[in-house]
Design brief:
Structural class: mainly alpha
């Protein structure tokens, strides 16, 4: 009981403090890897790659979405991670995009692990689309590395609330209208938070908290990445006001 109370306390602190959230994720990395291996059928040692990134995102979402009424946190986190990975694999199988940058967790949906029926009408186009998405992800990963950011960082840094997602969308929209901000990022390696905050009225602390995610957005929208942009358009269109790709 005391251990569960300690976890609940740490989860509560993680909701309010980024450093506490990072520490909690680090401490539970063995659990996250183990769950990834269990769900994917791989070994714990193989707990890396796309599925682990998705699992990290799921664990962070579990932190944001957890309340004591949901029961034990570990059980809840396991459910969210499983839902995340299944959803990712389902989307990958449809070749509609390999990276999900944002979603919400209600904790109420039932999980179906039935395979999505694949269309066999245009196998060549489907394989081409899948390879194009993977190539985009690899290129984006290389670009992010120049800023000291990994795809896992981006996954962990995703907004979990619609209001925050909308704020990041405002930052992106403002930068697209003021291209010198994106150029400043590329030249200095630093996100011009002050100028973005002044131009959008988004609080600096919000921009700083999601800096890695916003950097990824800026790079995506200034370097092509048509497949990833198509996915992001769907994400932003779910929010208020939408976002044209």
């Amino acid at each position: 009981m005391k251990r569960e109370e300690d976890i609940i306390r740490r989860v509560k602190e993680a909701k309010e403090n980024v450093a506490a959230a990072d520490e909690l994720i680090r401490d539970y990395m063995p659990f996250i890897k183990s769950e990834t291996a269990r769900i994917t059928g791989g070994s714990t040692a193989e707990g890396s790659g796309d599925e682990l990134s998705i699992a990290l995102m799921g664990f962070h979402e579990a932190i944001e979405g957890y309340t004591p009424e949901r029961g034990a946190f570990i059980k809840f986190a396991s459910l969210v991670i499983k839902r995340r990975i299944i959803d990712y694999r389902r989307k990958e199988k449809r070749f509609s995009g390999n990276v999900s940058f944002s979603s919400t967790v209600s904790g109420q949906e039932e999980i179906s692990i039935e395979d999505t029926v694949e269309s066999e009408e245009k196998p060549y186009e489907q394989i081409h689309d899948r390879d194009a998405v993977r190539q985009e992800i690899e290129e984006l990963s290389d670009q992010l590395g120049k800023y000291g950011i990994t795809m896992t960082d981006v996954a962990k840094n995703c907004p979990r609330q619609e209001r925050t997602l909308e704020s990041c969308g405002k930052a992106l929209g403002f930068a697209r209208e003021n291209r010198h901000l994106i150029e400043a990022l590329k030249k200095t390696g630093k996100l011009p938070i002050g100028a973005i905050s002044e131009g959008t009225e988004v609080e600096k602390k919000t921009l700083e908290r999601h800096r890695k995610y916003i950097v990824a957005l800026f790079l995506i929208y200034s370097n092509g990445y048509d497949s990833i942009r198509a996915h992001l358009k769907q994400v932003f269109n779910k929010g208020k006001g939408g976002m044209e790709a």
